[in-house]
Amino acid sequence: MENSKNNLLEKVRKIEQNGFSQISAESRPVYHLSSPMGWMNDPNGFSVYKKDYHLFFQYHPFSNEWGPMHWGHCKSTDFIKWDYLPIAMAPDQSYDEGGCYSGSALQEGEEHILFYTGVIDHYLDDGSHHYSQVQCIAKGDGINYKKYQGNHVITGLDLPPGSNIKEFRDPKVWKEGTTYYLIAGNQDEDGYGQVLLFQSDNLKKWNFLNVLDKSNGEYGKMWECPDFFSLEDTQILLVSPQNMRAKGYEFHNGNNSMFIYGDYNNTTYQFKRKKIFSADYGLDFYAPQTLLTSDGRRIMIGWMQSWDAKFMKDFLNWSGMMTIPRELQIKNEKIYQSPVRELENYHKNLIKYEQCKITEAVTLKGIKGRVIDLQVKLTEFNFHHFTIHFAHNKEYEMLLQYNHKRKCLTIDRTHSKLLRDIVCRRKMDIEPILEEQKEILKLRLLLDKHSVEVFINDGEKVMTSIFYIPMEANEIIFDTDGTACINVIKYDICI
User: Fold this and answer.
1) CA distance linking residue 128 with residue 257, whole number of Å
2) If 148 and its partner were Cys, which of 122, 137, 208, 352 is the partner (CB 3.0–4.6 Å)?
3) Which of 288, 313, 339 delimits the end of a domain?
4) How many domains are there within the chain?
5) Nearest alpha carbon to residue 398 among 239, 228, 284, 276
6) How many CA within 13 A on the CB side of residue 296?
7) Residues tagged active-site
8) Are residues 320 and 367 in the same domain?
9) Both ends of the chain: CA-CA distance in Å?
10) Is the pLDDT of residue 305 over 70?
11) CA-closest candidate to residue 390, choices 428, 459, 447, 305
12) Is residue 76 within 8 Å of residue 135, measured between CB atoms?
């Protein structure tokens, strides 16, 4: 199989190189990572290797639709400017013939070690269908990776009784002292999601330790892409449930991503949850993964799309973007997210307004654009609704609307060039905060051509959405049905 591996990987790398060279940089976002070509989804292997930040991703380079998964690859020194690297893995072995699926990475000595899910998917001579998901390893030097000859390292035989071997994926690996730990998503015998914890001394032989947490029928049918880390003295389990029912505005129907925080005993391997809440309240966010920087920051990045979203974007030769990497902090039992501070190095052309009275729909000179960091602070609330229209012209627009009476924020892409009836609106509860004994609401909009990430009250909550409105729609309008007072700061983002 080794010759087959080399041949297939070389073939795909050539296809990728040729396809990438034909895609105009103008078609891409400016400061968000997009697919080199073809389809991109889950971030994988988000890690530090030899002082660079490496990010891999689920990748189908042959079309703009999901297909047999490969591992795309890129790296950065600052989370903002990404260099594309040759594709890292292709599905070319018996244990990953159905795809090289999501996983993680770590540096061990001089080696960069990838952990991923291989899908075994074939028909036997008797006509029966053999399908299972197994955990695998590849080792490399930051460019080239070789799959471990002893793959697979965890199989269905290593799972606790009642576990579904067909729903066992997305390993996240870390090291404590001389011991390695691995978590993976799984489905229990009742068909609900759970996270399994394993331990190893050598990365090759793994022992099951415990079920960290499970859905119990309340939080979805399968838990994908788990991550497990500490913020200060709090332990966080990050998972992405599938087929989940809405719970007011906290969760929505379908695929979610959520923080579970609680206490963890690293001797008994028991995790006791305290609280669960959404990682993002917008329309397009899934499968986030984190890394720890050398200066102690926990950074999270996610896939900026929903599985159910269908956009007419035939004008693009690529499909899929990642969110801005976000710094995580915990305050008052809430997880705050903020764009990585490195983004500020690319701020240009500051325009600032203070204490602007808004009584009708208005524009502010210089406040427009589609590649900007827009910060709006509401300081007076004599209205029912305050609305920001952005990516606006006579035909298209995006809306961000705050209902002060209901303390509710809505993002709306109804008029964003959609040609199919998909979910266009999502809401979240949000309260003004106190600043110098006065109520305020902070809204920070990161716009990058075809996406927006809205950070509310310094990242207390976030709403993310993609849209494919023509670039000439670049107006920003502030509107209210009463009287509002706002401070506005706008930066262009120039790479």
Assistant:
1) 35
2) 137
3) 339
4) 2
5) 284
6) 3
7) 42
8) no
9) 43
10) yes
11) 447
12) no
**Average pLDDT value over all residues in the chain:** 94
**Confidence band, pLDDT 50/70/90 cuts, at residue 314:** low
pLDDT band at 310 (very low <50, low <70, confident <90, very high): low
Q: How far apart are CA 486 and CA 50, in angstroms?
A: 45
Domain span holding position 95:
2-339
- pLDDT-derived band at 311 (thresholds 50, 70, 90) equals low
Can you give the CATH number for the domain in which 274 is found? 2.115.10.20
List Cβ neighbours of 373 (8 Å cut-off, separation of 6 or more): 339, 343, 347, 444, 445, 446, 447, 490, 491, 493
So what's the pLDDT on residue 122? 77
> What's the confidence (pLDDT) of residue 447?
98
Same domain? For 311 and 418 the reply is no
Cis amide linkage into residue 32, ω under 30° from 0: no
Name 321's bridge partners.
34
> What is the reported pTM?
0.95
327 and 363, same domain (yes or no)? no
What tokens does 88 get? 């890292």
User: CA-to-CA distance for 275 and 261, rounded, in angstroms?
Assistant: 6
The helix/strand/coil state of 451 is strand
Considering the domain architecture, whether residues 275 and 352 belong to the same structural domain is answered as no
| Cα radius of gyration (the chain) | 23
* Edge-to-edge strands, sheet with 286-292: 286-292, 298-303, 326-331, 334-339
CA–CA separation, 352 and 362 (whole Å)? 16
pLDDT at 44 over 50: yes
Quick one: 318 and 371 in the same domain?
A: no
Q: Domain of 413: which CATH number?
A: 2.60.120.560
